[in-house]
Write a structure and sequence with these properties.
- By secondary structure, the chain is α/β, with parallel strands linked by helices.
- It is built from 15 helices and 13 strands.
- The strands form two sheets. It has a seven-stranded parallel sheet with strand order 3-2-1-4-5-6-7, sandwiched between helices.
- Strand 12, helix 12 and strand 13 form a beta-alpha-beta unit.
- The longest helix has 18 residues.
């Protein structure tokens, strides 16, 4: 039995958190004994993990303000769990987890979830100064290059970015894409109709959904600005933003200032995203940068025709743009043109949706991702040498 401690910043409603919970529930519990240490207090996935019989340690810390206390608490969890291997996800859990496991001699694997420290990170985000970005990257890079640390990148673009920006050896970075729980994307027609009625969508077309945190990275402002042109061409069009974040009030104000109060709705966070996707007519993904684009992948799996930013990870997960309409980032006009095209050409929209679902089901099965990850955990725990390509799931 391999004991694994997963250290993550929180169990909130993000892609990394959701993927960890989904993988833990489906892991081979005859071979792996898991425990989770969440540094913060967000607990969106705690019940799911605990219901699978996996202990969860919630530290309720803010690492950037409480580094010493957080280190002490994590060290206590490490002593109690005594894992054979440690897995870290996201920035502070990676930095602190790697530091502590270096002291204890435990093998550690870090999941890399984004194209870290690329220039686009500062777009539309004046709070991220060059000095702050340099300091963050320096600390991440120093701990990343310590001997004994392995990495799992969720896409080719993330792997290339980590090698370039953090100085990680290519021989220590495997690629294992995130996987989807396909059973969640089969929604009965009656339930879809009921949800549209409940949300007041019956008289709207097209209903254009975007799922993601309300932060600068996700580019929601450009989708809202695009709606001025979309609403002129398609007077019943409706843009629906699903997610929570610091820009909620700002985005509401933007819609109001553009006279789009009736054309833009913010639903907040929801537990029924697959049902919302099934009820939508199309999906828009205006992100400025991504590591993988989990929300986009889910929309593709649901068979929704999609308009998305032409950024490297999105090109990668849409089969070089074959199964979605890709447009230049930060361009309301290009987004509007794509949304209008899908709203007026229903044959194209239907074809893209069908091809997208088939592509995603072929490429992103969560069972395959889990087995590859378990292979890596087993190798690290046993001290067996392993080649990066041995546990790499290719894309495309």
């Amino acid at each position: 039995m391999v004991r694994v401690l997963h250290i993550i910043e929180s169990l909130g409603n993000g892609g990394a958190e959701h993927q960890l919970a989904a993988m833990l529930v489906r892991s081979d519990h005859r071979r792996f004994q898991h425990a989770v240490c969440a540094l913060g207090q967000a607990d969106w996935h705690r019940a799911t993990i605990r219901d699978a019989g996996i202990p969860v340690y919630m530290l309720d810390r803010v690492p950037r303000r409480e580094i010493r206390r957080t280190l002490k608490d994590v060290r206590g969890v490490l002593r109690e769990v005594d894992p054979d291997v440690v897995h870290t996800s996201l920035y502070w859990s990676g930095v602190l987890g790697r530091a502590l496991t270096r002291l204890t001699g435990k093998p550690v694997v870090t999941t890399l979830s984004n194209t870290t420290y690329e220039p686009e990170w500062r777009q539309d985000n004046p709070r991220l100064t060059p000095a702050k970005m340099y300091a963050t990257r320096w600390l991440d890079g120093v701990t990343a290059r310590w001997w004994g640390t392995w990495f799992v990148a969720i896409s080719k673009a993330v792997r290339a970015s980590a090698i370039r920006q953090l100085g990680i050896s290519p021989d220590r970075v495997s690629i294992i894409p995130r996987g989807l729980e396909f059973e969640k994307f089969s929604q009965p027609t009656g339930q879809v109709s009921a949800l549209r009625a409940e949300l007041g969508w019956n008289d709207a077309y097209p209903v254009i959904v975007s799922v993601g945190r309300l932060v600068p990275q996700k580019g929601h402002r450009y989708a809202i600005e695009a709606m001025t042109e979309v609403a002129r061409a398609l007077p019943r069009a409706l843009l629906v933003l699903v997610g929570e974040g610091s820009l909620h009030s700002e985005l509401e104000g933007l819609a109001r200032s553009l006279g789009l109060t009736d054309r833009v709705r913010l639903l907040g966070g929801r537990h029924d995203v697959p049902a919302v996707l099934a009820a939508a007519d199309q999906f828009v993904f205006p992100s400025l940068f991504e590591g993988f684009g989990a929300a986009l992948i889910e929309a593709l799996a649901a068979g929704r025709p999609c308009v998305a930013s032409r950024i490297p990870p999105v090109v990668e997960v849409t089969d070089d743009g074959r199964v979605a309409l890709l447009v230049e980032p930060r361009s309301p006009g290009a987004l509007a043109a794509g949304m209008i095209q899908l709203g007026t050409d229903r044959v194209l929209a239907a074809r893209l949706g069908e091809e997208a679902a088939a592509w995603v089901h072929q490429q992103y099965d969560i069972t395959a991702s889990i087995r590859k990850f378990e292979t890596l955990l087993d190798a690290l725990a046993s001290g067996r040498s392993i080649e990066a390509g041995e546990v790499t799931l290719g894309i495309g």
